[in-house]
Structure formats: structure tokens, C-alpha cells
TrEMBL record:
Natural source organism: freshwater metagenome
InterPro entries, A to Z: Amidohydrolase (IPR017439), Bact_exopeptidase_dim_dom (IPR036264), Peptidase_M20 (IPR002933), Peptidase_M20/M20A_hydrolases (IPR052030), Peptidase_M20_dimer (IPR011650)
GO molecular function, one term: dipeptidase activity
GO CC list: cytoplasm
UniProt-recorded name of the protein: Unannotated protein
All copies of domain Peptidase M20 dimerisation, residue ranges: 93-182
Cited SUPFAM superfamilies: Bacterial exopeptidase dimerisation domain, Zn-dependent exopeptidases
């Protein structure tokens, strides 16, 4: 599988160009040997990974029918077995109050911005009572037009993250309750909308990953586990795919160590020599891994058995 969309501001600050080229390279190479190796390759270029859930849309339309395993490499500043991809869903909250002149008749107003601010602060208080692996990030989208007019409209947008798709469902109502409390305090009304589909946590198939690690190692890449190196935390719709078929999502070094993704610096690195090498090595490692899978009934059994035993949630679409 591949991703290819650029970011609106930084361009390929997430290295999707590297991901796309590596995936395509692997698919082209595998297509020439698939029949003789007893396998079949399907290359899926997936749009809108940055919040749009393109892989989910494609899966809902049958893109994974007949697929035994799925894999992709993701650009990074280090070679890692996986990303700590945690579950994510986006939330839009809108507050409605009553406009009034802030100096002449403030008593007639109901301040929607105050409601949003209090909701924001309630979430800040909630953070001390959530799991260390959970994250809640929010921004203000709207909050009035003029300082002398009591804002009748305000809105905030949130990303809610938790370690698994199940624990995310438990966290969501707590966040909503905190955000709604601001409206109650200010005499405003509030509505919320969960936007898009929830991104699930990534369930790495270690048996499949072991094949990739060995193959990447033969190309000179020392693929480390996040715990032995460092954690890379984020969310991706590849997590949902990993609940449907055995999957891996290794990180491949395409940038200098210490270069953070989603930055202009990473976008610059994504068109450099390290990125070019990551494309070639990523394509080779994935192609070699697919061939190992096709030609080893032992590997097939181990990968399938691990997937069956894993704590996956088929209700992720």
C-alpha cells in the first residue's frame, strides 16, 4: 500500500512521495515474478491519509477482498519496526450564544467564546485523569468578529487519541462532557460532531515484520524496535487495515536523524539522496518480504496464526 498526498503547507513533509515510489517499485518488481512464485500482488495507492481515511473508503469498497497480507514503509529519520500508531478521531464542537453590545448591553449577551474557553479549560483539567498514552489536542476555529460585540458563535476542533480503538470509545464521552460544561456555565447551546471515521491502533504482525527486518538488514539497514531506539507516536488509517488483514508499517530512514515529520525540513529531506535510497531499499525489502511469504508455508501459517490470536477489532470500518 502507498500514500501520496502532500501536506497543504510543507509539501511532502510526511514523505508520502517516498512511500508512493517505494510501494510502486515493490509492486513492479513483484509483478514479474508473482506467477512463478505462486502469488498475486495488488498495489493500492491510497489518498487522504491525513485525516480523510482513504484506506477505509477503499476497504469499504472491496479493495482488500482476497488480500492475505498488507504492507507499506513510511518515511522517517530512523529505521524502525513500526510506528506506535494509536487510535484517533476528530471532533468539531460549535457553541451558540446571543450577540449584544459588550459595553452598552452586556447583560443581554450570552458569550459563545467564553463557553468555548471554559470547555477548553475543562479538557485541560481532564488531562490529569486520562491514561499516559492518551492525547487530546484542540484549536479554536471561530470566536467572534469584533471585541465590542459579545460573540454569538464559536467553534473548536479536536483530535482525540487513545492507545486502542476500544479505549478511544471510552474516552470520547468524557471529552464531550468536558466541552459541553462550558456551554452550561455560560447559558449557551452546544453541538458536537465526530468527523470522519475513527483511526484504529496499529497491530503489527511480528511474524511478517521479522521477514521485513531480515530483508532490510541484508540491504544494510539496522531496523530497530521503537522501545530500543525511541518511540514514534502518531495515528494512521493503516491501523484500521491491520485489524482486517495481517499488516506491517515499518519506518524507513529517508531523512537525517532528528528531522521531525510534518516540517519544512522533512519536506526538503524527502527530495534528497537519503530519500532516494529509502525508495530503492524500501521497494527491495518489501518485494523480498512478499516473496518470502509466497514461498514459505511455514511463514504463511505463522503470520495467519498470530493474526488470529491478536486482539483485533473487525468493527473498524
Amino acid at each position: 500500500m502507498s500514500e501520496y498526498d502532500a501536506l497543504p503547507e510543507s509539501g511532502h513533509g510526511c514523505g508520502h512521495n517516498v512511500i508512493a515510489a517505494a510501494g510502486l517499485g515493490a509492486a513492479i518488481g513483484l509483478a514479474s515474478v508473482a506467477t512463478s512464485a505462486g502469488g498475486r500482488v495488488r498495489y493500492l495507492g491510497t489518498p487522504a491519509e491525513e485525516g480523510g481515511g482513504g484506506k477505509l473508503v477503499m476497504a469499504n469498497h472491496g479493495a482488500l477482498e482476497g488480500v492475505d497480507v498488507a504492507m507499506m514503509v513510511h518515511s522517517a529519520d530512523a529505521d524502525l519496526t513500526s510506528i506506535d500508531a494509536i487510535a484517533l478521531q476528530q471532533l468539531l464542537v460549535e457553541y451558540s450564544g446571543r450577540a449584544s453590545h459588550a459595553a452598552a448591553a452586556p447583560q443581554h449577551g450570552r458569550n459563545a467564546l467564553d463557553a468555548a474557553v471554559l470547555g477548553y479549560m475543562a479538557v485541560a483539567a481532564l488531562r490529569q485523569h486520562i491514561l499516559p498514552t492518551e492525547r487530546i489536542h484542540g484549536i479554536f476555529l471561530r470566536g467572534g468578529d469584533k471585541p465590542n460585540i459579545v460573540p454569538a458563535d464559536a467553534a473548536t476542533e479536536w483530535y482525540i487519541r487513545s492507545e486502542t480503538i476500544s479505549s478511544l470509545q471510552e474516552l470520547k464521552p468524557r471529552v464531550v462532557a468536558a466541552l459541553e460544561s462550558g456551554a452550561h456555565a455560560c447559558g449557551c447551546s452546544v453541538s458536537h460532531q465526530w468527523t470522519g471515521t475513527a483511526y484504529a491502533d496499529m497491530v503489527t504482525n511480528n511474524s511478517l515484520a521479522a521477514l521485513y527486518i531480515a530483508n532490510a538488514g541484508s540491504l544494510g539497514r539496522n531496523v530497530q524496535t521503537p522501545s530500543s531506539h525511541r518511540r514514534v507516536v502518531g495515528s494512521t488509517d493503516m491501523g484500521n487495515i491491520s485489524h482486517l488483514v495481517p499488516s506491517i508499517h515499518p519506518m524507513i530512514a529517508s531523512a537525517r536523524p532528528g528531522t521531525s515529520i510534518h516540517t519544512q525540513e522533512f519536506a526538503t529531506e524527502s527530495k534528497g539522496l537519503l530519500a532516494d535510497k529509502a525508495v530503492i531499499d524500501g521497494a527491495k525489502a518489501m518485494a523480498m518480504t512478499a516473496i518470502d511469504y509466497w514461498t514459505s508455508t511455514q511463514a504463511q501459517s505463522a503470520i495467519r496464526e498470530e493474526f488470529v490470536q491478536a486482539n483485533t477489532d473487525k468493527d473498524v470500518l
